[in-house]
From TrEMBL:
GO terms for molecular function: protein tyrosine phosphatase activity. It comes from Algoriphagus iocasae. Keywords: Hydrolase. Its EC number is 3.1.3.48. This is Protein-tyrosine phosphatase.
Amino acid sequence: MEKPNILVVCGRNKRRSRTAEYIFKNDSRLNIRSVGLSPKSERQIKERDVIWSDLIFVMEYNQSKRVSEAYRSLELPKIEVLQIEDEYEYLNEELIEMLTERINSVLKNLFGI
């Protein structure tokens, strides 16, 4: 299999999803990009992001629902909820640890990487 395209989504693409992209951007196992759901996001999620992705990570359950509803006309990839509240700053040590552990666990289970 080619490298999977991983889309990481949070509220405004300021802290959680950007941290995940930062951690994995040089990871040779995958391609990663981060976006936010809010119109105020630095990079707001677009249909082309969803089409590009093989797997979408969201931080909270309600974000999964928002992505599914907004793009229900598309054939959606699997959406994984990381269950990380919006209480960490960009590149926070604890946030990096949680993202690394949870994303690696899902990648191993789904793609064997």
